[in-house]
Amino acid sequence: MSGLDIITLVLFLVIFFLLSKFFYTQKKNKIKNFPPGPNCLPIIGNLHIFDVKNPSKTFTQLNNKFGPVFSVQLGKQKMVVLYGYDAVKDAFMNHAEELSERADIPIFTEATKGYGIVFSNGENWKVMRRFTISTLRDFGMGKKSMEDRINEECNSLVQIFKSYGGKPFENTTIINTAVANVIVSILLGQRYDFGDPTILKLMSLINENFKLLGSPMTMLYNMYPKLIGWLPGAHRKILANNSEVNDFIMEAFIRQKSRLDVNHQENFIDAFLIKQLEKNPESRRYFHNENLITLVSNLIVAGLETTSTVLRWGLLLMMKYPDIQKNVQREIENVIGQRQPQIEDHKQMPYTDAVIHEIQRFGNIVPAVSPLATTQGIVFRGFFLPKGTHVVPLLGSVLKDKNYFEKPDEFYPEHFLNSQGHFVKNEAFLPFSAGKRRCTGEILAKAELFLFFTGLLQKFTFQAPPDTEVNITPVFGLTNTPMSHKICAVLRHND
Question: Which residues pair with 477 in a beta bridge?
């Protein structure tokens, strides 16, 4: 037998072994009354059926075939997908406790080691969440001091926009800096000037990771971490970037510790360090440096990416729909005039409030919640989900549910207005998720969106550069972002 024949035989035996193991595992792991789904291929599961450029398209097709509760398999991992508001509401309302844990996703597990708030579970998650909500409230979340902080950044943003004199410019880095300064000032007690290399580097690392998290290589790593982990690729870059972000936080933490005054807490890190000094069992167990670094990292990333992306969508959509922009500006003039916007103003501004809600709905910034895991076996809508089942609530399918939104694929502020022009809530509006894993920074995000949006439209009219068509096709990924574009901010008043 030749060398080539031996290699061929070995390959045949390896493939035969893998296929045999796959079919044996499939048969062994078949769960009675598990949600239906498409047939799987060996090794890759259902990966071959996904539209990589637009995964929501694949999920819609599966929903049409199998209904609002179905399963898919990526590699060896089965997961249950919840499609549409009714299924998602049922899960969060009636099974909140059983769906309170975050699923083990290798890239996030490796990056966070189970610390922080977003990807931790059990008592660690409860303690960190309780501390975070309480401390953010202490440092102004929902208070006048927070409003002043946001308006200060908005005023700086206005000056930068004004400096372009109505000529085209790219707004991503500028808006990211303003939004980052709000959360960083709460966490670290400082802000950065526009163009400061430190904040630019931090934002670059975070933005790159959001893009890489949706890459095929990262998906493969999450499917087979031991097999793929040693190879170069996106997953390695994500972990390297994460380490740099952690180094940035560690430097800030060391600075804070060196000048800590227990009688005068200036920021979030100070509050955490003071908890460390309490020396009680909870402090010793949970308030350690690893939790601090991961927690601050979680809050910076969450506080930066989604809010800044919504604002960029908002300005782009105002360029696309100038009549809607004029209506918002008219309401701003009638209610606010030339003074600084205040959060309380939104109660007298139903149209603007509706437009901001519709920007969040249409932009569909976070199309899917990071998978949750069942804490015990449950029966959900007639199907059995064993303990540890990965569950993915598709928020994008909720925000575009045709049973709750008249024109789900259009930008239509009337989704949140009644016939008299009054603002109306829509129960299917869940951009911040729901249940026990609902976004902890929701109050801050809402304040930022209203104050930045009204502050900018008070000062400028936003237009597309000459001879440019406004494209509102999203770039699909872990977050749905606008395509790269330039804007013209034309000053409305001679101030």
Answer: none
3 state SS of 186: helix
Predicted local distance difference test score (pLDDT) of residue 13: 44
* One-letter identity of residue 457: L
Residues 6+ apart with CB under 8 A from 385: 34, 35, 80, 374, 377, 378, 379, 391
CA 350 to CA 285: how far, in whole Å?
47
CB neighbourhood size of 387 (10 A) = 11
* Contacts of residue 37, Cβ cutoff 8 Å, sequence gap at least 6: 46, 62, 66, 70, 71, 72, 73
Can you tell me the mean pLDDT for 112-129? 95
Phi, psi of 481 (to 5 degrees): -115, 160
For residues 62 and 39, give the distance between their C-alpha atoms in angstroms, rounded to a whole number: 12
On the 0-12 / 13-18 / 19+ scale of CB atoms within 10 A, 281 is exposed
The pLDDT assigned to 16 comes to 46
- Cβ neighbors of 163 (< 8 A, separation 6 or more) are none
Task: Check if the beta carbon of residue 271 is closer than 8 Å to that of residue 278.
Answer: no
53 pLDDT band, cuts 50/70/90, is confident
Tokens of 60: 């819609």
What are the φ and ψ backbone dihedral angles of 450, each rounded to 5 degrees? -70, -50
For residues 419 and 121, give the distance between their C-alpha atoms in angstroms, rounded to a whole number: 45
Report d(CA 371, CA 392) in Å as an integer.
Answer: 5
Q: How far, in Å, are 128, 250, 252, 334 from residue 292 at the CA level?
A: 9, 9, 11, 45
Question: In whole numbers, what is the pLDDT of the chain averaged over residues?
Answer: 90
Tell me which amino acid residue 65 is. Answer: K
pLDDT at 24: 41
Backbone angles phi and psi of 331, in degrees to 5: -70, -40
Cβ distance 372 to 101 under 8 Å? yes
Q: How far apart are the first and last CA of the chain?
A: 88
Secondary-structure percent of the chain, ordered helix, strand, coil, rounded to 5? 55, 10, 35
What's the burial of 323, exposed, middle or buried (CB within 10 Å: 0-12/13-18/19+)? exposed
